Amino acid sequence: MAAVDVLNSAGKKVSEAELTDEIFSIPVKTSVLHEVVRSQLAAKREGTAASKTRAMVTGSTKKLYRQKGTGNARAGSANSPLRKGGGVIFGPSPRSYAYKVPKKVRKLALKMALSCKFTDNTLFVIDDFKLEEIKTQVLAQVLATLNLQDILIVSDSEDMNLELSSRNIPDIKVIKTAGLNVYDILKFKNLLLVESTIKNIEGRLS
Fold this sequence. Notes:
By secondary structure, the chain is of the alpha/beta class. It is built from seven helices and six strands, in the order ββαααβαβαβαβα.
């Protein structure tokens, strides 16, 4: 069992929290992390690029001129891809770039990401993070006391005061335990867990 200090908002140690070795102290494989992060980023792509085919272009379907006797090539609709303003041949159409990674691999990658933070000493635990009001200055002061920047804060429940207070502070994000993911853990330098989230994380990944 690994252990980590539990701090209060004043930056003082109040207790210790035990962390399961099977989640916070496992060997890290960059190939697994890369595959999961890549799938997350692919799922975020909108894939909305689109062009009109000749069937979608608005225009007359009348034959431009008679078939024979003009000396020109045979021509039908003005919506032909060969003409200006006509449709596009084999153009892009809306699509999804998302692809699935096996559930076991996703769970393993999440464990590895947490292990990375613990090994690098960038994982911190706070006993409670409830703010009495929506006040960015109060939250900034707490983070300054803890000497933390570029941080991902994980809460066990929806805390609007915390979320709204963090919006104007750069390089900070607040998520719930259910939304914990590999990309966000690796994106931010520091990871701050509310003490009550540890059991939820271990229950989710055990």
